[in-house]
Amino acid sequence: MKLLVINGPNLNLIGFREPNMYGDKTYKDLVCFIKKEAKLNGLNVKVIQTNYEGKIIDLLHKSINKYQGIIINPGALTHYSYSIFDAIKSVNIKTVEVHLTDISKREDFRKISVIKDACVKTFMGKHFDSYKEAIMYFAGEENV
Would you call 99 a catalytic residue per the annotation? Predict the structure, then answer.
């Protein structure tokens, strides 16, 4: 199975951005973690980060007939990007939403995910392990 992992705005700054909330591990550490977990679970993975909403939409569109699953952390776009919601619905590829932090316990505007209903599952609040749970979900451990 081929997975596409899309990370949105400001995720490239983890390790530097609010380390009390996001930890001190860097984005490079996250990418290595994702690739290692995918390999351990027999999955091929491509990881991409962008700070641009349109690029996320383009990546979703280009995933058709290329990937069997998508893991997406749209960052702050989670809370207001109906265009990402539409793109996820349009490509008809099983998509899982992931967040490093528990957005339900953050600022009021962050408690709402407008993409949630386009995704089959959400994993959040476990830092890097949120991605691990998403990978395990795609590896067939549906009870995750």
Answer: yes
Q: Which of 27, 52, 67, 99 is catalytic?
A: 99
Split at pLDDT 50, 70, 90, the class of 23 is: confident
Active-site residue, selected from the candidate residues 22, 27, 67, 131: 22
CATH number of this structure's domain 2-138: 3.40.50.9100
Domain-by-domain residue ranges, the chain? 2-138
Coil, strand or helix at 114: coil
pLDDT tens track for 45-59: 999 999 999 999 999
Residue 131 annotated as catalytic: no
- Measured CA to CA in angstroms, residue 46 lies from 15, 62, 81, 84, 110 at distances of 21, 13, 23, 19, 27
